[in-house]
Amino acid sequence: MALVWISVVGAVAAIYVGGWWVSQPMVAWGRWGFRLALAALLAGLTLPAEAVNAVVDVLSAVLPGLSDISDAPGASFGMHFVLFSSVAGALLVFRWDVKVSVLLAALMGLAVGTEGLQWPIPGRYADGWDVLTNGIGIALGGVIRWGVLHIGLQPRLH
Fold it and tell me: Which residues pair with 157 in a beta bridge?
C-alpha cells in the first residue's frame, strides 16, 4: 500500500509542478488563481474520502450548509464540473499564446489522469461519468476563452 501512496503522491506532485511551469508566463493574478484552482482540483480529486469529508467539516464552520450540499445528490458532478471549469478557464484564457488543441489535449489528459489516480485510493473510485463531467467543465473553459478572445481581450502575459 505504501508503494501505491508514493506513486499517487508522486503523480500529483508531477502534475502540480507541470502546472506551475505552464503558468509561469501568465499575469500574476491569473497565475496564482490557476495554481490555487489546480491545487484544489488535485486535493479534491485525489484525497481519500475521509480527508475530503474532514475538509468539508472544517469549511462548514465558515460556509454554513456546505456539508448539506456535499451530501446532496449531484454533489460529485458539481465538484468535478466547478474544479475543471476553473482550471480550464484560467489555463485557456491566460495561455492564449499556446495552441488551443494542445491545451485541450493536456486538460483531457488531466481529466483522465486524475480519475485514474482515484482508483487505488480508499473510499474513492474511478468513474467514466466523472471523466465526462470533467470534459464538460473543460468545454466551459473553452467557451470562456472564446468569449474573452471574441470580444477583443487578449490577456497580457508576464
Answer: 26
- The answer to whether 135 touches 111, Cβ cutoff 8 Å, is yes
Give the angle subtended at the CA of 52 by the CAs of 54 and 22, to the nearest 5°.
130
34 vs 46: CA distance, rounded Å: 18
Structure confidence by residue, pLDDT tens digits, 64-109: 887 777 777 667 888 899 999 999 999 999 998 999 999 999 999 9
What would the grid cell of residue 29 be? 493574478
Contact 147, 96 (CB under 8 A): no
Distance CA 35, CA 17 (A): 10
Full-model pTM: 0.89
- Are 91 and 98 in contact by the 8 Å Cβ rule? The answer is no
Contact status, residue 76 vs residue 130, Cβ threshold 8 Å: yes
Across the strands, what pairs with 26?
A: 157
